[in-house]
Design a protein that fits this description.
Elements (H helix, E strand, L loop, with lengths): L5 H9 L2 E5 L4 E5 L7 H6 L7 E5 L12
Parallel strand pairs: 2-3
Antiparallel strand pairs: 1-2
C-alpha cells in the first residue's frame, strides 16, 4: 500500500509532501521541491506510471472555503 510505504512517508514528513489518490492516478505534491532520494524511490516503485509529481506546488483543496 502506497500510503504505508515507510520510505515515501519519511520523505513526505521531512519535505512537506501531500499525496492525493484519484480514480486512475496519484498526485504527489512537493511544496519545497523534490527531496533527495525520491527519483530513485520512484524508479523502483510499482506506482511509477500512476504518479504525477507536482513540484513546488501546493495542493488545491476543493472542500475548503472559496478562494
Amino acid at each position: 500500500d502506497l500510503q504505508k510505504d515507510s520510505q515515501l512517508k519519511k520523505m513526505m514528513e521531512n519535505n512537506l509532501g501531500a499525496l492525493f489518490i484519484n480514480q486512475s492516478w496519484i498526485d504527489l505534491y512537493w511544496t519545497n521541491g523534490v527531496p533527495k532520494g525520491f527519483e530513485e524511490w520512484l524508479s523502483n516503485s510499482q506506482y511509477q506510471k500512476l504518479i504525477y509529481v507536482r513540484e513546488n506546488q501546493k495542493p488545491l483543496l476543493l472542500d475548503s472555503p472559496g478562494l
